[in-house]
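I can't quite decide. Please look over this sequence plus structure tokens:

:::
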Amino acid sequence: MNDTRPIITIKSLGPISVNGDVILLDENGHEIKHKSRFSLCGCGKSNKMPFCDGSHKN
């Protein structure tokens, strides 16, 4: 049996990594386009919200 559930990994003080088939919606319910593997900002410092741009490293 093949498990096709998405994998979400939360890193402390860093990004939230998403790998798999998910639907990402903004606060108004509009779909946000993305690749099958992406990282969401977990620190609030990104200039590309909701995606991580590495700003947590500074």
About this structure: The first strand starts at residue 7 and ends at 10.
